[in-house]
């Protein structure tokens, strides 16, 4: 049993409140997943730059690491994580240099706008640790985990990101993840952990690399991924939801002129502004729901 929340803002005036709203939603899901938690926020980005979200041991000197990488790279540290801003054209070079000089540092996410944080611990503590309530942006997803098929580790926490500005959170279990993993390896998509949720993220990345939109990739997954699942996914400008054909995992959504919100339970949505006037609905089985700011 895990808890998922997501928030996609239509109203720019709410963007300064994204982190505070998402933090409140995440906190309501502690009972569904006290082992670990994480979130991805799509905030401001600079043209020509890629944000690398890094993770290392407590107390790691990310500023010293940035200095070793040279060229005056900007780094912002938040606890065990840091966001390193690099020229987009040099991302591969800097990733290779990181692997060489700092093998104990993990790149957990990358993108023009996405920052990704996750850690073992109570969801409320994780949100405070990384100052989620102070973050701004257009959309975000968050997850609370109750481990059932793999160890309680930061590597096993959600969200998972396998492509630029792409992330996925998942409640459920995939039965054919080993077969899908082998297919992804052949296609050159790297899956770093044993978690089946990362396989799902990798699958969507692969389909989008093949030219599919996020919505189309989610449609494809209905044929290729077996098991019980609810996915909430993010891209640089998009937000998607999908439940498997049986839809045994709980899900509820709310939509107003200001936002689209997702929660594993209604209580995750109850504190949102204007919720009393929102359209409240349960996402249907095997139906892709997708919103994209680029299409607005």
Automatic annotation (TrEMBL):
<protein>
    <submittedName>
        <fullName>Glutamine amidotransferase family protein</fullName>
    </submittedName>
</protein>
<dbReference type="Pfam" id="PF13522">
    <property type="entry name" value="GATase_6"/>
</dbReference>
<keyword id="KW-0315">Glutamine amidotransferase</keyword>
<dbReference type="InterPro" id="IPR017932">
    <property type="entry name" value="GATase_2_dom"/>
</dbReference>
<dbReference type="InterPro" id="IPR029055">
    <property type="entry name" value="Ntn_hydrolases_N"/>
</dbReference>
<feature type="domain" description="Glutamine amidotransferase type-2">
    <location>
        <begin position="2"/>
        <end position="294"/>
    </location>
</feature>
<keyword id="KW-0808">Transferase</keyword>
């Amino acid at each position: 049993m895990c808890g998922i929340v997501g928030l996609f803002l239509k109203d720019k005036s709410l963007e300064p409140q994204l982190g505070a709203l998402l933090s409140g939603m995440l906190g309501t899901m502690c009972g569904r997943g006290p082992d670990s938690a994480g979130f991805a926020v799509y905030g401001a980005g600079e043209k020509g730059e890629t944000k690398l979200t890094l993770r290392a041991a407590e107390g790691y000197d990310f500023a010293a690491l940035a200095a070793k990488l040279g060229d005056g790279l900007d780094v912002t540290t938040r606890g065990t994580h840091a966001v390193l801003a690099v020229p987009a054209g040099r991302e591969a070079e800097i990733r290779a240099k990181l692997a060489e000089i700092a093998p104990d540092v993990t790149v957990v996410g990358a993108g023009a706008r996405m920052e990704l944080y996750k850690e073992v611990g109570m969801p409320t503590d994780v949100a405070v640790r990384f100052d989620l309530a102070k973050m701004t942006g257009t959309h975000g997803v968050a997850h609370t985990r109750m481990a059932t098929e793999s160890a309680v580790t930061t590597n096993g926490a959600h969200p998972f990101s396998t492509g630029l500005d792409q992330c996925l959170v998942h409640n459920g279990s995939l039965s054919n993840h080993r077969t899908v993993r082998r297919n992804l390896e052949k296609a050159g998509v790297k899956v770093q952990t044993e978690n089946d949720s990362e396989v799902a993220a990798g699958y969507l990345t692969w389909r989008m690399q093949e030219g599919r939109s996020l919505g189309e990739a989610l449609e494809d997954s209905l044929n290729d991924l077996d098991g019980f699942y609810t996915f909430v996914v993010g891209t640089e400008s998009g937000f998607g939801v999908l439940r498997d054909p049986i839809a045994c995992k709980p899900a509820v959504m709310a939509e107003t002129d200001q936002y689209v919100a997702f929660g594993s339970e209604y209580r995750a949505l109850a504190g949102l502004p204007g919720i009393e006037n929102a359209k409240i609905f349960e996402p249907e089985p095997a139906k892709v729901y997708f919103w994209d700011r680029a299409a607005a």
